[in-house]
């Protein structure tokens, strides 16, 4: 059965208790904090990762995914200094393997990561959601030109090094879609923007450890039939991690939504995960900011997360017809 997780900061906070009280036993983590690192240590070294993992375990969580990456822009763009960044990636995955952390979610976005043009769009009942409008984004200062062909070449080289490392470590490389899935984005090429392109990524270096993150918010902007896409990649065993979220609009102009109020049939998606036998972790993503909570970290309202967790647990129980965590 699919497992429900949450992204939790590496230091204990009230959110840790709220999530635990909501019935979540799995964690998606970032990288260790500087306070986890001793003299001469980096966040990709074994001991900082162990210290972070131990804190989660002490609170009753199992660390199932690391969703963060070392600096990679030089590596992605093929610039001087990329070799050092590749070494950090190798070290991270090797040490994740030693600690039995099974999935590394990485992104291949150059210059800018995921981006929005608004973070305070009114939604249901006065809640706030994030939104993207390409016309507004293109009013921003110019960005460095990045060519798609360079991204493809550099990604293939990256995978040829990293996939054997991942196989030895027992850690799945899980590619996250570009967000938004558009190319070029104000002069910056992007390649993880379509179902066809993701299939190409998986075929570059065939391996059980070359996989993808099924971020529903992005994939639903690529297709009119998200459950069919889940089944397409699931039949290949290529989904290693799920972001459960929804949007309204298209890739050029969209806004995030409540999990029960977007364009996607979320029940049909849960049924698709059941049908492909996916037993990895899913986490809610990009929730509304609700009354009484802060919008300082848009998309990650604590109270909004609790609603999402409850909704997902209800969907899971309806689809699998049984209660209980895992």
Chart the SSEs and their pairings.
Elements: E1 3-7, H1 14-21, E2 26-29, H2 46-58, E3 62-66, H3 73-77, H4 82-98, E4 103-107, E5 118-122, E6 128-133, H5 134-137, H6 148-169, E7 172-176, H7 195-204, E8 210-215, H8 216-219, H9 226-235, E9 239-244, E10 247-250, E11 253-256, H10 266-275, E12 281-284, H11 302-320
Rg for CA atoms: 19 Å
How would the global form be characterised?
A: globular
Helix content: 25-40%
The number of domains is: 1
What is the CATH third-level topology name?
TIM Barrel
Order of helices and strands: EHEHEHHEEEHHEHEHHEEEHEH
Largest sheet: 8 strands, parallel, barrel
Strand order of the largest sheet: 1-2-3-4-7-8-9-12
Tell me the strand percentage band. 15-25%
CATH superfamily: Divalent-metal-dependent TIM barrel enzymes
The number of helical segments is 11
> Total strand count, please?
12
- Taking all residues together, what is the mean pLDDT? 96
Termini Cα gap: 6 Å
From the coordinates shown, what is the CATH architecture?
Answer: Alpha-Beta Barrel
Structural class: alpha/beta
Would you identify the regions where 5 or more consecutive residues have pLDDT less than 50?
A: none
